[in-house]
């Protein structure tokens, strides 16, 4: 928590010196950085308050400010277990940026959590198509969709293949391997 307090103090000093407040790009960037500090330290109420205050300033500036705000707020909503609110934020990211596998996977993950499995699968498959291959992460994600739909005959081989690829590529990733074994 000491790091968070130091970041807050630095931000307060910056704000005291800047007469334009959040209209200043330096302050806006610093506020986005502070909000991420809050996110990473699970100070979610503080992050929420800061994102709420930043919203009009980020959205009025356009790219890249708006996209960063939408993405970070979607992350916040997921950490708050408010996936239904995260989905439209991620949809905005997808509308405002060129297709990117991370955005597509994030959308798939949110819709999977919302039990909208067919929609999730569309996004996971779009991520794989964008990459031109189905990698271990895509196998895992699509396999989870099938598992959640109780299509175990489709899920099992995909999850087994994802696990085998993860063991081969990154055998030291104990957290991911544990999640795959659990799947």
TrEMBL record:
Q: Which InterPro entries match?
A: TPR-like_helical_dom_sf, TPR_rpt
This protein is called Tetratricopeptide repeat protein
Q: Which Gene3D superfamilies match?
A: Tetratricopeptide repeat domain (1.25.40.10)
Key words, A-Z: TPR repeat
Question: Pfam families from the entry?
Answer: TPR_8
Is Signal a UniProt keyword of this protein?
A: no
Q: Where are the TPR repeats?
A: 101-134
């Amino acid at each position: 928590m000491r790091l968070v307090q130091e970041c807050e103090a630095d931000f307060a000093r910056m704000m005291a010196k800047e007469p334009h407040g959040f209209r200043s790009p330096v302050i806006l960037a610093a506020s986005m950085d502070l909000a991420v500090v809050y996110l990473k330290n699970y100070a979610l109420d503080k992050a929420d308050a800061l994102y709420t205050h930043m919203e009009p300033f980020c959205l009025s500036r356009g790219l890249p400010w708006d996209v960063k705000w939408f993405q970070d707020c979607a992350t916040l909503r997921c950490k708050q277990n408010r996936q239904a609110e995260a989905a439209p934020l991620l949809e905005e990211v997808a509308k405002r940026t060129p297709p990117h596998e991370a955005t597509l996977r994030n959308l798939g993950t949110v819709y999977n959590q919302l039990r909208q499995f067919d929609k999730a699968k569309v996004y996971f498959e779009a991520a794989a198509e964008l990459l031109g291959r189905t990698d271990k992460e895509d196998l895992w994600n699509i396999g989870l969709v099938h598992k959640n739909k109780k299509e175990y005959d489709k899920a099992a081989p995909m999850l087994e293949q994802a696990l085998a690829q993860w063991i081969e590529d990154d055998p030291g990733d104990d957290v991911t391997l544990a999640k795959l074994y659990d799947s």
